[in-house]
């Protein structure tokens, strides 16, 4: 059974922010600043399988910098994904 995934980055934890749209006349209406989320599939050599993550653009850069094995180990430890 597929569960609904919330709109947040699994690596950085960033979520949508809220603020105001400000018109030329400075009228303010509420709006959302959504996170640039992507669904990416990574091959994890230590697990011997693929893992699909919902990550932001910053999360992709974090994976590139730290390495997928390090990031996945942390996600397993905090319970974000199953081993």
TrEMBL record:
Transmembrane segments: none
Gene3D superfamilies, alphabetized: Ribosomal protein L28/L24
GO CC, alphabetical: ribonucleoprotein complex; ribosome
Keywords associated with the record: Ribonucleoprotein, Ribosomal protein
GO terms of biological process kind: translation
Pfam families linked to this entry: Ribosomal_L28
GO molecular function: structural constituent of ribosome
Lineage top rank: taxon: Bacteria
Region Disordered, annotated ranges: 1-31
InterPro entries: Ribosomal_bL28 (IPR026569), Ribosomal_bL28/bL31-like_sf (IPR034704), Ribosomal_bL28_bact-type (IPR001383), Ribosomal_bL28_sf (IPR037147)
NCBIfam families in alphabetical order: L28
Sequence similarity: Belongs to the bacterial ribosomal protein bL28 family.
Name of the protein this chain belongs to: Large ribosomal subunit protein bL28
């Amino acid at each position: 059974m597929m569960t609904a995934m919330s709109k947040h980055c699994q690596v950085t934890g960033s979520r949508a922010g809220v603020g105001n749209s400000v018109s030329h006349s400075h009228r303010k209406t509420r709006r959302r600043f959504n996170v640039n989320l992507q669904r990416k599939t990574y091959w994890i050599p230590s697990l011997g399988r693929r893992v699909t993550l919902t990550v932001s653009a910053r999360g992709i850069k974090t994976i590139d910098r730290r390495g997928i094995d390090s990031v996945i180990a942390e996600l397993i430890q905090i319970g974000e994904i199953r081993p």
